[in-house]
Amino acid sequence: MLAAVAHAQNPSDPLSCLELREVPTPVPPAGWTRIKVKASSMNMHDVWTLRGVGHDPKNIPIILGCDVAGVTDDGREVIIYPVIADPDAGNGDETLDPNRALLSEQHDGGFAEYIVVPDRCVIPKPHQLSFEEAACLPVTWSTAYRMLFTQGQLKAGDRVLVQGAGGGVASAAIALAAAAGATVYATSRTEEKRALALELGAHDAFESGARLPERVDLVIETVGEATWGHSLRCLRPGGAIVIAGTTSGTSPEADLGRIFYQQLRVLGSTGSTRHEMVAMLRMLATTGLRPRIDRVLPLERIHEGFAAMIAGETQGKIVITVS
Ligand SMILES: NC(=O)c1ccc[n+]([C@@H]2O[C@H](COP(=O)([O-])OP(=O)(O)OC[C@H]3O[C@@H](n4cnc5c(N)ncnc54)[C@H](OP(=O)(O)O)[C@@H]3O)[C@@H](O)[C@H]2O)c1
């Protein structure tokens, strides 16, 4: 079968390490399911793998792609829960399994004609979602769902600030929080992305670092160093900040005095459980929320898609389809 394989790692020229090549069609071991891939979307995670960041070189070569939807050998339309992990090893929460792995880290991913995954990773695709839409959801939308509703305990009527509206997790968080009845404030460095935030359901959008009309109950943080101080200052006493990423850097001034005096809660968040992903899918099916797709390309044009993503030319997800 045809697959997009990371065959090397290079920090300055990641795309030279990605090759479309013929590989053997996988045969599922006992307890695993084979899926004919219909659509698979791109993430910066794939680029970090090609650059050699956060990916063990001993797992190269590997097929990239961690957001996948397709059809099982017995004809079920499915979407893949992308974390291979054991809930028992995480006290009932697979995101806490110390040996958890995202698809394409230790196991071949979805930029290929077929993929095999553990049976528990197979989730029925809601009929309301196309394969292209479904393939945009497992990583960013499930992460945003856990940040808001599990870690952040968001309730209707709460006020939430989402930093860096242009990001994949941030834009999903804006849409989900607004649909859940929260008042949503968003920040972005550009006018264009502030307009996008309003389109997604934010009630108001501000330049990064601007004073908000009121303090908030919850901050959704994926930008990191550049916005951390602002996030802390925007919280009401007792409010919570949930952090899942640090795009602009990992070491801001901690401002510990503010944290203890205002009794703020700082919570990390990574990925989602299978259950949270199923709940997120139900929420999309019933609310009509949909991910924004920038473009759809065939597997043969995957390099073109990655080049656009690396250049920051995209507004929404790039989806790869496989015929
Ligand atoms: N924990 C998890 O499970 C998980 C899952 C997915 C992603 N992540 C992580 O979450 C982070 C966000 O990823 P993403 O793909 O959603 O978005 P992203 O494309 O990495 O960017 C997030 C946003 O940060 C803002 N930003 C970047 N540099 C900035 C700076 N110097 N100053 C101010 N704002 C800046 C930008 O917003 P504006 O342009 O709108 O200002 C950008 O859109 C990444 O670090 C990623 O690795 C974690």
UniProtKB/TrEMBL annotation:
Family matches, as Pfam families: ADH_N, ADH_zinc_N
Domain of life: Bacteria
Enzyme Commission number, as recorded: 1.-.-.-
Major enzyme class: oxidoreductase
Domain Enoyl reductase (ER) residues, every copy: 13-320
Keyword Oxidoreductase included in the entry's annotation: yes
Annotated keywords: Oxidoreductase
Keyword Secreted among UniProt keywords: no
UniProt cross-references to InterPro entries, sorted A to Z: ADH-like_C, ADH-like_N, ER, GroES-like_sf, NAD(P)-bd_dom_sf, Zinc_ADH-like
Species of origin: Paeniglutamicibacter gangotriensis Lz1y
Protein name in the entry: Oxidoreductase
One annotated GO molecular function: oxidoreductase activity
Coiled coil: none
